[in-house]
Amino acid sequence: MTERSPMSTAALDDAVARIVAIAALAGTAMVHVLQMPDAFGDAGYIGTLFVLVAVAAIALAALMTQSTDDRLWMIAGALPAVVLIGYLLSRTSGLPGFSEGVGQWSNPLALMAIVFEGLLVCLSAVRLAPQHVHMTARSAPITRPMH
Question: Which of the pair, 20 or 139, is modelled with greater confidence?
């Protein structure tokens, strides 16, 4: 079996993380595009927010094909976090001019969006975690209690 160098493993981890993030961003954009007609019908500003989310997700996915900058990962975590907060507010207390969504938790497209957005928040958090935290965990000696 061939042993991989730490550099090639890190590069592979980064490539996989970026591919997953790009797919989740594309999924987020797709769900919001599919929901746009209803969003504009409910309250005009909701539709505008859906357009902004879709455009931001596509732009971020395009940027992630070219770079692995930590600032992109911060945005990749912040954008879906804000969208998830908006979703939770729309389903609990309602939003200004939009209370029709309160209590409606079973929309299949919304559930898909929650999966994509939750994945992005988690993936960004892992990607942005300080490297020394991972190294400390690996290098910590294993001690067993003596009986």
Answer: 20
Instruction: Answer for the pair 58, 25: CB distance below 8 angstroms, yes or no.
Output: yes
As a whole number of angstroms, the distance between CA 143 and CA 146 comes to 9
SS3 133: helix
- From the list 63, 112, 42, 61, the residue with the least C-alpha distance to 84 is 112
Rounded to two decimals, the pTM is 0.80
In sequence order, the β-bridge partners of residue 98 are 95
Task: Output b/e per residue, 67-82; b: 16+ Cβ within 10 A.
Answer: eeeeebbebbbebbbe
Parse the chain into domains and list their residue ranges.
Answer: 13-128
CA–CA gap between residue 57 and residue 82 (Å, rounded): 13
